[in-house]
Amino acid sequence: GELLGLQKQDFDLEKGELKIAREYQEVSGKMIIQDGTLKTISSYRTVPLVDRVVEVMKEYFDHYQFADTDRVFPYKYGRINDWLDDGIRETEVKRITPHEFRHSFATLLNKLQIDPKTAQTVLGHSNIKTTLEIYTHITDEGILAAKEKLNSVAV
């Protein structure tokens, strides 16, 4: 819902930030942009954007004309999966769902040794346990790196 609820006004490309403040959801059988309905107060957040995302979004906004309150990704829930499938066919990467991107992102933050509280804030979780126990996954590479570090201090 957060991805599909994004509006152009949520992006501050000069600062390299994205404000999460609403979602796209079904209400009484109709899909609408809904303010004030994110899960927790922590869900309302400003997320830093890496330089490449800023570049891509500038190109996207230059190519398509959006009003500030237009949805940036004007897809239905099912269509976003079709859009991802199109990109996957072109790049031959493993297929994951939009929600699985959150898990992958949390795991990547962990791999990059970003502290868990920062990861929690960026992901919008109210409880650190959600970030660490549900979204962050252990990788074979991480286990091997732990072994190498332990070997370097073993007596």
Q: Main traits of this protein?
A:
155 residues; three-stranded antiparallel β-sheet; globular; two-stranded antiparallel sheet; 46% helix; 14% strand; alpha+beta
Can you lay out the helices and strands and say which pair or pack?
Blueprint: E1 11-12, E2 17-20, E3 22-27, E4 30-35, E5 45-48, H1 51-63, H2 77-91, H3 98-111, H4 116-123, H5 128-135, H6 140-153
Antiparallel strand pairs: 1-2, 2-5, 3-4
Summarize the structure.
The chain is an alpha+beta fold.
Explain what the structure shows.
The chain has 155 residues and is an alpha+beta fold. The protein is built from 6 helices and 5 strands; from the N terminus they run βββββαααααα. The strands form 2 sheets. It has a 3-stranded antiparallel β-sheet. Helix 4 (116-123) crosses helix 5.
Gap from first CA to last CA: 52 Å
Q: What is the number of E strands? A: 5
Helix content: 40-55%
**Average pLDDT taken over every residue:** 88
Based on Cα principal axes, name the global outline: globular
Enumerate the strands of the largest sheet in spatial order, edge to edge or round the barrel: 1-2-5
- State Rg: 18 Å
SSE pattern? EEEEEHHHHHH
Number of helices: 6
Structural class: alpha+beta
% residues in beta strands: 5-15%
Instruction: Outline the biggest β-sheet.
Output: 3 strands, antiparallel
